[in-house]
């Protein structure tokens, strides 16, 4: 954060106010001088012309005196006019000064009562010259703020991924040096009292008449409570998803172990009855029953796999995805290939479930909407994170169309939510008649801000 100076004050104009009657004084002195000069000049003329009969003409000294007095009177007259202009300028300045005082009062009242923390820094020194009480409260600044806040360990800022802010990373500094305008940038901070919080920053430069940056303003909004609520919501959602996956696994195991075994026993029982039923001429009914049992076995196995494949827990992500893609392609008669890296040891069980569900939902979308003939699934480790790509050669769609919006983005919102809870993201490349490619990225875990010291 930039250096903080003493609270901002408008320029002290008391010495100018004390001299505000300068023009009036000039007018009095000039008028007095003009009167004295005019009196002397008239007296001399009368004396020479009327009271001294021996002189019938002016000599050189008389003309010099008259010329000098006339010049002095002209200069004094000019001074009187100048003093009048000075007095007028003073009156205008007083009006401007009064307007400035009113503007200052309004500005201080507005800034002081803003519900967000506001600070202004000047470009020449990069020091904060104006801040309100809310700004000081957000940062837990002391009462005396002449200290260099940027150089202290008590005040720190971090990006959401835990990286610390450098001096030139702050929005206010970027506005001062680069003229950058910042909108709602999230900054995790360590305050002056040691507590931590999250602020939303908005910053913009202030330019003079020549377009040069003279200052910059920043506004901070405390979003710590909102981030805490979001974290609680995400934690609750993760718990719900985990409970959902555990329930799916329980149901899948029951379907596979209990109902699957019962159907197997039923199939064996029908087989043992085959000689008796054949002798009674009921072979056709027997075949129908056996076909029904076989179909039920297939459907139970498919339902159990869709709920939660046991291979994901027993064999790992790579094998589970391979089985998913091959069985899906075989069931729909679509050509599919899978390029899968061994990621099981590098990913948590939660992340493996997220990737599996994303691929599963993407393949479901292909089967329902694309009309594709071939699909390619790629899962690989790239740059410290997992990158998933599901590409088809189907009809594609327009993501901005009303139909796509009404269908909830073809299940994309659920995929995005799952990935977001794990710190990942989803993107889609598609166009009508050009197929669809779904990209999912799941980065490696980021350091926790709270753990940074």
Give a structural overview.
By secondary structure, the chain is of the alpha+beta class. The strands form two sheets. Strands 1-3-2-7-6-5-4 form a seven-stranded mixed sheet. The protein has a five-stranded mixed sheet with strand order 8-9-10-12-11, with helices on one face. Helix 6 runs antiparallel to helix 8. The C terminus is likely disordered.
Task: Output the keywords.
single chain, 453 residues, alpha+beta, 7-stranded mixed beta sheet, 13 helices, rod-shaped, disordered C terminus
Distance between the termini: 17 Å
Helix content: 40-55%
Low-confidence segments: 4-20, 144-153, 446-453
As laid out across the biggest beta sheet, the strand order is: 1-3-2-7-6-5-4
Percent of residues in beta strands? 15-25%
Structural class: alpha+beta
Helix and strand element order: EHHHEEHEHEEEHHHHHEHEEHHEE
Shape: rod-shaped
**Quick check: average pLDDT?**
76
Figure out the total of helices.
13
Tell me the number of strands: 12
Compute the CA-based radius of gyration: 44 Å
Biggest beta sheet summary: 7 strands, mixed
Strand and helix layout:
Elements: E1 3-4, H1 14-18, H2 22-51, H3 60-113, E2 117-122, E3 127-131, H4 133-139, E4 156-158, H5 171-178, E5 182-190, E6 196-207, E7 213-222, H6 224-272, H7 274-279, H8 283-307, H9 310-314, H10 317-332, E8 335-340, H11 349-370, E9 374-382, E10 385-392, H12 402-406, H13 412-421, E11 425-430, E12 436-443
Parallel strand pairs: 1-3, 8-9
Antiparallel strand pairs: 2-3, 2-7, 4-5, 5-6, 6-7, 9-10, 10-12, 11-12
Helix pairs in contact: 2-3, 6-8, 10-11, 11-13
């Amino acid at each position: 954060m930039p250096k903080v100076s003493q609270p901002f004050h408008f320029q002290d104009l008391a010495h100018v106010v004390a001299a505000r009657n300068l023009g009036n004084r000039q007018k009095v002195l000039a008028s007095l001088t003009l009167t004295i000069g005019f009196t002397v000049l008239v007296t001399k003329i009368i004396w020479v012309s009327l009271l001294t009969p021996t002189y019938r003409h002016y000599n050189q000294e008389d003309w010099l005196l008259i010329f000098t007095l006339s010049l002095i009177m002209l200069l004094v007259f000019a001074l009187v006019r100048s003093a009048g202009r000075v007095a007028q300028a003073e009156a205008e300045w007083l009006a401007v000064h009064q307007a400035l005082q009113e503007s200052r009062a309004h500005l201080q009242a507005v800034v002081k009562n803003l519900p967000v923390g506001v600070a202004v820094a000047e470009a020449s020194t990069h020091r904060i010259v104006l801040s309100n009480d809310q700004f000081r409260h957000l940062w837990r600044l002391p009462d005396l703020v002449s200290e260099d806040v940027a150089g202290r360990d008590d005040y720190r800022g971090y990006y959401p991924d835990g990286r610390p802010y450098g001096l030139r990373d702050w929005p206010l500094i970027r506005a001062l040096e680069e003229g950058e305008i910042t909108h709602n940038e999230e900054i995790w901070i360590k305050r002056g009292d040691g507590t931590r919080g999250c602020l939303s920053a908005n910053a913009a430069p202030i330019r003079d008449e020549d377009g040069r940056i003279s200052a910059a303003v920043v506004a901070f909004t405390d979003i710590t409570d909102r981030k805490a609520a979001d974290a609680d919501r995400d934690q609750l959602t993760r718990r719900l998803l985990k409970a959902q996956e555990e329930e799916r696994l329980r149901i899948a195991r029951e379907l596979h172990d209990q109902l699957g075994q019962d159907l197997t026993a039923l199939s064996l029982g029908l087989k043992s009855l085959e000689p008796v039923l054949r002798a009674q001429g009921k072979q056709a009914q027997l075949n129908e029953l056996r076909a029904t049992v076989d179909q039920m076995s297939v459907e139970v196995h498919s339902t159990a796999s869709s709920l939660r494949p046991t291979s994901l827990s027993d064999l790992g992500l790579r094998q589970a995805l391979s089985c998913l893609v091959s069985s899906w392609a075989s069931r729909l008669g679509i050509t599919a290939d899978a390029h899968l890296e061994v990621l099981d040891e590098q990913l948590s069980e939660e992340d493996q479930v997220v990737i599996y569900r994303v691929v599963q939902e993407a393949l479901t979308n292909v089967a329902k909407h694309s009309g594709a003939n071939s699909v390619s699934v790629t899962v690989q480790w790239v740059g410290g994170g997992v990158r998933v790509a599901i590409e088809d050669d189907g009809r594609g769609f327009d993501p901005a169309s009303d139909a796509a919006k009404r269908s909830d983005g073809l299940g994309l919102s659920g995929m995005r939510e799952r990935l977001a809870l794990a710190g990942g993201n989803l993107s889609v490349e598609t166009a009508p008649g050009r197929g669809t490619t779904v990209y999912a990225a799941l980065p490696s875990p980021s350091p926790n801000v709270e753990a940074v010291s």
